[in-house]
Amino acid sequence: MIEFAAVSKKYSTDAFALRDVSLNIGKGELVFLAGPSGAGKSTLLKMIAAVERPTSGRVIVNGHDIGKLKRAGVPFLRRNLGLIFQQQRLLNDRSILANVMLSLLVTGASSSEAGQRARAALDKVGLLDRAHAHPMELSGGEQQRVAVARAIVNRPQIILADEPTANLDRAAADRVIDALRAFNSVGVTCMISTHDDTVLGAAGRVIRLEQGQIAGGAQ
Ligand code: ADP
Ligand code: ADP
User: What sections of the protein cross the membrane (predicted)?
Assistant: First the structure.
């Protein structure tokens, strides 16, 4: 489902952000991308979403060759991706329900369908009882779970979560990871980056990056 073949990435003329990375991720896998800050984790995830392109090598996602993908093809790729970032941009002028519904409304869903599916997604992350709260009223961990609900509500095949537990305490971090695991257990391929090895837990494959290179777990 996701394949990197000898991928390198340079942002400028100096150092490599990623160097000769090869890996394969199959449908339904749960993969943690571990490594210290600056190791290249964000760069790797951004390439899967065609936010960045490889300098050399090949990245294939759901059959799309990212290096050759035309601008017009990017929305088709992203339709099957749920993206969660460290700083998720929730809209503060509306409820979390409205925030989650928005991802559906932009794809043409009716408001009754969007409302029903957004409620179901909030229920899955344990926030249905807060549906009418605004983002600012929630804790950081709750806001991250809203971001998980927003990422999943379009039923993507792949979820990419870039440091979703950064700045959260242990209990809140565990709840975010548990929410992601729950979607993985119904078949969604999940990649979760973290610089914090305590997040890794028992289940799940760990791919480790160090200074832009694979240090374990790629095959
Ligand atoms: P991580 O997510 O593991 O912290 P990143 O992928 O963000 O690592 O960064 C990998 C390397 O690439 C770092 O040295 C970083 O400074 C560099 N880098 C990341 N993004 C850019 C950019 N937009 N322009 C230039 N250098 C960048
Ligand atoms: P509904 O059928 O009302 O959408 P579900 O209980 O089937 O309710 O799912 C609740 C939410 O969780 C859905 O909106 C969907 O986005 C997400 N979801 C559930 N299962 C999957 C799955 N296999 N893949 C992606 N998303 C899923």
Answer: none
With a cut of 0.85, is the ipTM above it? no
**What is the position in ligand 1's atom list of the atom closest to the CA of 46?**
6
Distances (CA, A) of 88 to 142, 161, 196, 204: 12, 10, 19, 24
pLDDT confidence of 202, banded at 50, 70, 90? low
d(CA 71, CA 45): 18
In this structure, is residue 199 part of a structural domain?
Answer: no
Q: Compute the distance from residue 125 Cα to the ligand 1 centre, in Å.
A: 30
Spell out where 100-198 has E strands.
Answer: 158-162, 189-194
Residue numbers of the domain that contains 141: 90-155
Per-residue pLDDT at 219? 67
Predicted confidence (pLDDT) at residue 54 exceeds the cutoff of 80? yes
User: Ligand 2 pocket, 124 CB below 6 A?
Assistant: yes
